[in-house]
UniProtKB/TrEMBL annotation, chain A:
Keywords tagged on the record: Acetylation, Guanine-nucleotide releasing factor, Metal-binding, Protein transport, Transport, Zinc
Pfam families, A to Z: Mss4
UniProt gene name: RABIF
Stated name of the protein: Guanine nucleotide exchange factor MSS4
CDD domains listed in its UniProt record: RabGEF (cd00246)
Assembly and binders: Interacts with RAB8A.
Entry's Gene Ontology molecular function annotations: guanyl-nucleotide exchange factor activity; zinc ion binding
From TrEMBL, chain B:
Chain intervals with Low complexity compositional bias: 1-11, 22-32
Record-given protein name: Ras-related protein Rab-12
Compartments (UniProt record): Cytoplasmic vesicle, Autophagosome; Golgi apparatus membrane; Lysosome membrane; Recycling endosome membrane
Biased composition range(s): Gly residues: 12-21
Coarse class of the protein's main subcellular location: cytoplasm
Entry-linked InterPro entries: P-loop_NTPase (IPR027417), Rab12 (IPR041830), Small_GTP-bd (IPR005225), Small_GTPase (IPR001806), Small_GTPase_Rab (IPR050305)
Protein EC: 3.6.5.2
Keywords, in A-Z order: Autophagy, Cytoplasmic vesicle, Endosome, Golgi apparatus, GTP-binding, Hydrolase, Lipoprotein, Lysosome, Magnesium, Membrane, Metal-binding, Nucleotide-binding, Phosphoprotein, Prenylation, Protein transport, Transport
Reaction(s) catalysed by this chain's protein: GTP + H2O = GDP + phosphate + H(+)
Regions crossing the membrane: none
GO biological process entries: autophagy; protein transport; Rab protein signal transduction
Topology class, membrane: Lipid-anchor
Species the sequence originates in: Python bivittatus (Burmese python)
């Protein structure tokens, strides 16, 4: 289970220009690559949690490398209902996790969802752009 | 047409989570809406759409804008995309589509009934350059007849319009097939050129909305017609994820 810090605490910790006083995203969340709209302003809450996301890579750069490279990311937008997303894709299950990807160009992972917690969908701030 | 007859039958699913009906009535529009305080306007509808058709007809590419080199290997080719949420706006309504691409499960009997049962829209795709994919259509229709809800909207798509020189199935043949089936619409598309692709989804949604009587629309505003959690009743016989061969 996620143990997200309170909205106020999150807002204090988060990048101020992105997080409003109520701990929500001030700006729209977009795909870094194709600009596809992932979340409207205010649709998510800033939260901190250490999550591992495989690296966003080009197909050609990977292939033989079975070691999964990636990053442990801290800052996320937390969404409780997947129908709050404007556009997003879900991978098939990897263990009990589904990764979130761009619905249009399918770059990713941009986020993380654990099947054990149906009300938590994380989008990593580092993996998206804000407008 | 059987307006909304199947709506009640549709499984209650999960209540649709946090998408309340607030914000639906005063139609927000323009820049004012954009500046308006959160929470953002929730979706008016949630609809599930499935894309079916024989192997290699380009089902997956109908959902994509790019078919390039840049997908994450780890999350795409080896794991595969399960479904997508996409938002369209039509006739003042904001509709969230949950789109299931059945690629990789093309054997007729391996696509499970669960996909069909919950679908409000079904996009049946064939490849205009491959006669066998057109010849398969009756088999797909059998699946639809057997499993899909009667009020599911059907759209037949002849894909790969960009390969006109290799065309084996004429536009008329496609039209004729669709005409034989009550309520089935038809169009040709090219996912490669993005020709008609957005229109396909809009067309389908438009048809679904048209079939709903106003009062149903009002009642359904807060209630998802269909709300699937990321793991719907996926039956055990679903094949394990595997890297699928992509066409074109």
């Amino acid at each position: 289970m996620a143990a997200p810090s309170s909205a106020m605490e999150a807002a204090a910790l988060g990048p101020e220009e992105l997080v409003c006083a109520r701990g929500r995203n001030r700006k729209a969340v977009l795909c870094q690559r194709c600009g596809s709209r992932v979340l409207l302003p205010g649709a998510a809450t800033f939260t901190r949690r250490e999550l591992f996301l495989p690296a966003m890579k080009k197909k050609t750069a990977l292939v033989a490398n079975s070691d999964l490279e990636g990053d442990v990311l801290q800052d996320h937008w937390l969404v409780e209902d997947m129908f709050s997303f404007e556009n997003v894709g879900f991978t098939k299950d990897v263990g009990n996790v589904k990764f979130l990807i761009c619905a249009d160009c399918e770059i990713g992972p941009i986020g993380w969802h654990c099947l054990d917690d149906k009300k938590s969908f994380y989008v990593a701030l580092d993996r998206v752009s804000h407008e | 047409m059987e307006p909304g007859s199947g709506l009640q039958r549709r499984g209650p699913g999960f209540g649709g989570g946090g998408l309340g009906s607030a914000g639906v009535s005063p139609a927000l529009s323009g820049p004012q809406a954009r500046r308006r305080k959160q929470p953002p306007r929730p979706a008016d509808f949630k609809l599930q759409v499935i894309i079916i058709g024989s192997r290699g007809v380009g089902k997956t590419s109908l959902m994509e804008r790019f078919t390039d080199d840049t997908f994450c290997e780890a999350c795409k080719s080896t794991v595969g995309v399960d479904f997508k949420i996409k938002t369209v706006e039509l006739r003042g309504k904001k509709i969230r589509l949950q789109i299931w691409d059945t690629a990789g499960q093309e054997r007729f009997n391996s696509i499970t009934s669960a996909y069909y049962r919950s679908a409000k829209g079904i996009i049946l795709v064939y490849d205009i350059t491959k006669k066998e994919t057109f010849d398969d259509l009756p088999k797909w229709m059998k699946m639809i007849d057997k499993y899909a809800s009667e009020d599911a909207e059907l759209l037949l798509v002849g894909n790969k319009l960009d390969c006109e020189v290799d065309r084996e199935i004429s536009r008329q043949q496609g039209e004729k097939f669709a005409q034989q089936i009550t309520g089935m619409r038809f169009c040709e598309a090219s996912a490669k050129d993005n020709f008609n692709v957005d229109e396909i989804f809009l067309k389908l949604v438009d048809d679904i909305l048209k079939k709903m009587p106003l009062d149903v629309i009002r009642n359904e505003l807060s209630n998802s017609i269909l709300s699937l959690q990321p793991e719907p009743e996926i039956p055990p016989e679903l094949p394990p994820p595997r890297p699928h061969v992509r066409c074109c």
